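thought: fold this chain, then report.
action: predict
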Amino acid sequence: MSGSIQVHAELVQVEPRARQRIVCLRLFAPQVARAARPGQFVMLAPGPDGQLDPFLNRPFSIHRVPDADTLELLVAVVGRGTEGLAALPPGVRLRLLGPIGRGFDPPARGPLLLLGGGLGVAPLFFLAESLAGRPVRLLYGAATAEALVSTAGLPCRVELATDDGSAGRRGLATELLAEALSALPVAERALAYLAACGPEPMLARAAALCREAGVRAELSLEAHMACGTGACMGCARPIGGRPQRVCSEGPVFDAREVYP
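observation:
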């Protein structure tokens, strides 16, 4: 948690970002925004400052940092805590701890691939924007077109896949990845890089594809956590032959450690 800051962030805006119940929270938190790096996350109170019900903070990937003073979080409205967040009016102050964890570490040169599944695409927007000017491909999959977050304005090539074929390719985002990897010249594969975030089966398949192709991959893992500081050990899982905490040692890990 080194470098994390506890602040009282002001809610600037709540905006729908998909036809399904996904909203974007824009928060005024200059100290956190200026320290944030792609792949890190924050712990956010699910209600206004001083409200203790619901009690536990929620982890959210940093979706975007549109300017030096604000950051954005993508929130799927699925329960009482997220329902409350989506209904808050602008001006409310929320307890925020961040930025937390280890982010992505893309190489200085070489082909760059980003793989997002469902809401796992959230941190990849921040990464894509940080890599503006370089050749980047975002391979993004979801169940339906209604579940896709708009990628308009992203400074990269975007390829879509949906389970039902309602947008982009009918199928899985990992099928797009398999094609992208096979198209890479053999001489470029040692320089190529994949950043991925999404469901575990997608990450496992992506790790296997990259291992076969000889491409370096980093995975952003998702986990339930109570504190976000490494104290509760609630997010620990065996990685690299020893227990590692997703909040502290992650959330970004080398794919070879997660799926050896």
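thought: worth noting. The longest strand covers residues 5-16.
final: tokens above.
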